[in-house]
From TrEMBL, chain A:
One of its GO terms (cellular component) is cytoplasm. Regulates the GDP/GTP exchange reaction of most RAB proteins by inhibiting the dissociation of GDP from them, and the subsequent binding of GTP. One of its GO terms (biological process) is vesicle-mediated transport. It comes from Dinothrombium tinctorium. The keyword Cytoplasm applies. This is Rab GDP dissociation inhibitor. PANTHER family: RAB GDP DISSOCIATION INHIBITOR, RAB GDP-DISSOCIATION INHIBITOR. It is found in: Cytoplasm.
UniProtKB/TrEMBL annotation, chain B:
CDD domains: Rab (cd00154). It comes from Dinothrombium tinctorium. This is Ras-related protein Rab-30-like protein 1. PANTHER family: DRAB11-RELATED. InterPro entries: P-loop_NTPase, Rab_GTPases_membrane_traffic, Small_GTP-bd, Small_GTPase. GO terms for molecular function: GTP binding; GTPase activity.
Amino acid sequence: MDEEYDCIVLGTGLKECILSGLLSVSGKKVLHIDRNKYYGGESASITPLEDLFTKFGFQSTTLEDYGRSRDWNVDLIPKFLMANGQLVKLLVHTGVTRYLEFKSVEGSYVYKGGKIFKVPADEKEALASSLMGIFEKRRFRSFLLFVQDFKADDPKTWKNGIDPKRTTAAQLYETFGLDKDTADFTGHALALYRDDDYLGQPCLDLIQRIQLYSESLARYGKSPYLYPLYGLGELPQGFARLSAIYGGTYMLDKPVDEIIMENGRVVGVRSGNEIARCKQVYCDPSYVPDRVKKVGQVIRCICLLNHPIPNTKDALSCQIIIPQKQVGRKSDIYVSLVSYTHQVAAKGWFIASVSTTVETSNPQTEIKPGIDLLGPIMHKFVSVSDVYKPTDSGTESQIFISESFDATTHFETTCLDVLDIFRRGTGENFDFSKVKHDLGDEDN
Amino acid sequence: MASVLVPEFKVILVGEYGVGKTSLFRRFSTNTFLDTDSMTPSASRRSTLGLDHCARKFETKSLKAIKIQLWDTGGLERVASITNSYYKFAAAAILMFSLASIDSFHCLPQHLLEILSLAENAKIILVGNKCDLQPHEVTDSDIDMFLEQFPKFDGVYKISCKTNEGVSELFDEIAEQLASISYKSSFDAFKLHSHSEAGCCNANHLQQDEENYCCAK
C-alpha cells in the first residue's frame, strides 16, 4: 500500500467502481479500497439469505421455508436499467457488458384511483388502454406522435407554436388538451419525474425523457427496463474488473483511518500505519462525513413474496409507479419486483421493494399504498437511509464525493453524477476511444 | 441462420498469485510464453494487464464443435479477493498450483471451496504447472493424498506453460468433457450487445452511432 498513486478511490459502490474503471482506462494509476470485505458497498446484492436477515437484525435460524439460501442475491438498493439509458451506454462503451447477462422487465404499471394499469407507451397501446376515456385517448395519441417526431435541432418538428426552451411542461400538456390524470402518468410513469417541479420548467426535458422511455421500450420490447442476472451487485463488480484489467489495484477489508491533507489539498490516505500517497481521492459520503450535508431521506422496504404481485398478469418482474398526487404526496412511490428467474431468489420466490423519498416523521406509513399492492408478504426489511450531497465541488481539496443513491428506480441520475464527478476530477469528458474493445476477444 | 451456433463454455482460471494462470491464458490465446521470472515485479505485473478473456474453437472426438471461453483473473487476486461475478456462469474451473511451490499447493483447499460455493456446477480440473522446474516441491504422493481428501476433480494434469508440455492435451480433455454436458443458456437472458451479433467488436460501431453520447455534452 505504501506507494504513490494518481487517484485513490474509497468504497466499491457502483458509482465508485464506474469511476475507478474510467480513471484506470484513462491511464491513471488507481488504488481502490473498501472497508468491507465484499465488493459493492450499498450497491451490493446480499447473499446468502442469512446475511440479509442478520444485516437487518433478525434471527436467521428458521429459514428452511425460503429454499436454498445461496440462491438469494438481494439488492439493498433496487433499481432497473433503462434499455437505452446512460448506464447501458457506459456498459457497452466500456465493454463491461460482456461480464453480464440481462433480462427484460416484463411490465411497467401505473397506479390510478386505487388500481394499477399497464403504462401505455406507444400510440397503439394508448388507444387500447383503459386508463383514459375515448376522447382523452385521442388527445394523448396526438401528444405521443408529436413527441415521437420531435427533434430538438429541427424547428419544423416543434409545431403548434411550441418552443422547447420556453414553453413549460404544463403549457405543453395544455396545448394538447391533456387532463390532470393523463399529465400525471405521463410525467411520472413515462418521464419518470419524482415530483411535480418539472411542470414549471421548459418542456424540452420532458420531451427527451419520454423519448428515452419509448426508445428503451423499442429496444427489447415488453418494458423499457432491464435487470442483470444475479442482481445489481454484478454491476460494480464488472466495473471493478475493468479497472483491474487496466492496472487498478484493489484492497478489500481495509479500514480507512485518515484522509491526509496538506494546505487544503489531499495528499494521501492512511490505513493503520500504512500511508498511500495520491493526488486525488474519489469516494462515497460515508468516508468523509465532515464534507457532506444531509439533504433528505429515502425509505426502502424489501419484501420477500412467494407469489407475483396481484393484477400484473403474474409478471415475473415489473415496476409500478404510484404518482404522488394519487396518494396525496409530494414525491412518487416506486414498487419493483424481480424473481427467481433472475437468479436472485430461490425457486418460486419473488423480491418486491417499495421505496420513496421520506416526507414525514413516520416513513413506514408513507409506503403503505405500495405495500398494500403486494398481497401477502412473507418477510419485510425496512431501511431509512440519509441522502448526502458533497458540500463543495472538490476542485480545491481534490476530494470528489458522490451523492447518495436517490429513490428513483433507474440509474439515470447515478450516471449523470458519475460523469459529472469524472469531469470535475479530470477536467475533461470521458473519452471512450481509450477503451480497447478487443481485449482477449480476437476469436469472436 | 446460416451457421450452426457453436456452444460456448466459460472456463475460469483459479489459483494463487504467481502459479502461472496468465501464462496458461497466453498459451491458450496466442501460444506464446513470457518469461516473467526475468522481469522486474512491476513489469511482470504489467504483463497480466489488459488480459480479459478469449475464446477458441475445439472439435471433439464425436466431431462436435464447441468453444472454450477462457477467463483470466485480471490480477485481482494479487491483493484483494476475486469478485464473485468471475465465477458466475462458469462451466469449468482450472484450479492451478505450481509444482515448484508447496505454498501454492497448500492454498488449494481454500480456492476449491470458493469454486464449490460460487460455481457449484462447474467441472473442476486440477493442474500442476511448471513441471519443467526441478526439483518438484510438490510430490506425486502429496497430490494423491490431496485427491483422496477432496474427491471433487474431473481431471488432473501436470503441465509446463514454458515448454508447452501437456497444455493442448489439457484443453482437448476439457473440451471433451464440456461437449458431453448439454449446453444451456439462461432462458431469454441476453448480453447487451448480442442483438448485433459478433461480440465486442461491435462496440466500436455503436460508439460511432452514438457520438452524441451524453459525455460529450
